[in-house]
Write a structure and sequence with these properties.
Length: 288
């Protein structure tokens, strides 16, 4: 596996590969890899001739009081995982090479970044989109892989691709979960043992929506909220039932619907969602 750090070297390689007519799949990550990332990489390997993975803890997507400094970093372990998956190239740019001396040129995603997570993290999605735009320009992939776990992020990136006319196909892969249903996340490593147990309630509450999909929106929300509020470790930030295509409000429990939430457990903030698509009422990532 090739490890590339300078932006100009990554640029040269992707230019070279363009000429060779091979398809490039790209998986952007912030490292601290887990099976959620592994699943995106497997999808990419399956659908492309070459797979690039980036590891870059993007400072622009963290607010001033957030966990940028303590975000988990495990470079050796990440490289072992990527080697075992036979990833072709890992791109690990440094901060200055990506951002220069300032960050004056940036992508603004508008209203799509202001709802849900954008309420408590007002600059988050502009920061994500700015760095993903740079990565797309450097890597020039045919397909880029994102997780449904970060549903709003995947929609913001799709919107950016559409509106800024990138020729990238954005592929959204199902959420990978722990045995008790907790969505895998690099931030799960922050949880103490009792917090970790309590965190499993989030998926239990989301799944309750499947049994309630004939109810009206308000009763469905109330029921899910009451399950979460009964768990003393959990502090619900938002719970919304929305159209998964664009996160617009739903008037009734029409399918498809996305049930999205964010909650704090101690100092850790977790997000999750399920999408109920069909009359079978199974969420599309139902592994349990
Ligand atoms: P991150 O390293 O947290 O920025 O995530 C990199 C990519 O992995 C993003 O597209 C995430 O949505 C995706 N991802 C993170 N956790 C999961 C998960 N549990 N299942 C599937 N994809 C995930």
């Amino acid at each position: 596996m090739q490890i590339i750090r300078p932006v100009k070297d990554m640029h040269s390689l992707s230019k070279l590969l363009r000429i060779s007519d091979k398809s490039i799949g790209f998986v952007p990550t912030m490292g601290a890899l887990h099976d959620g990332h592994v699943s995106l990489i497997r999808h990419s390997k399956h659908e492309n001739d070459i797979t690039f993975v980036s590891i870059y803890v993007n400072p622009l997507q963290f607010g001033p009081d957030e966990d940028f400094d303590k975000y988990p970093r495990q470079r050796e372990k990440d490289l072992e995982i990527l080697t075992s998956l036979e990833v072709d190239t890992v791109f690990i740019p440094d901060k200055k090479d990506m951002l220069g001396d300032g960050d004056t040129t940036s992508v603004h995603v508008g209203l799509a970044g202001k709802k849900l997570c954008g309420i408590s993290r007002p600059d988050h999605f502009n920061g994500v989109a700015t760095v993903v735009a740079k990565l797309f320009n450097i890597v020039d992939p045919d397909r880029a892989y994102f997780g449904q776990k970060d549903l709003q992020q995947s929609l913001v990136i799709k919107q950016m691709v559409r509106e800024l006319k990138y020729g990238v196909n954005v592929v959204v892969c199902p959420t990978v979960r722990e045995d008790d249903g907790l969505a895998m996340s690099s931030r799960n490593s922050y949880l103490t043992e009792p917090e970790r147990k309590a965190a499993a309630t989030l998926y239990k509450a989301l799944k309750r929506a499947i049994d309630l999909s004939d109810a009206d929106i308000t009763s469905m929300k109330n029921e899910i909220e009451s399950i979460i509020k009964a768990e003393p470790f959990l502090d619900l930030e938002y719970l919304d039932i929305l159209n998964p295509e664009d996160l617009s409000a739903l008037e009734s429990t029409d399918l498809p619907m996305a049930i999205c939430l964010a909650a704090r457990i101690g100092k850790t903030r977790l997000i999750d969602n399920i999408i109920i698509k069909s009359e079978t009422k199974l969420p599309d990532d139902c592994a349990l």
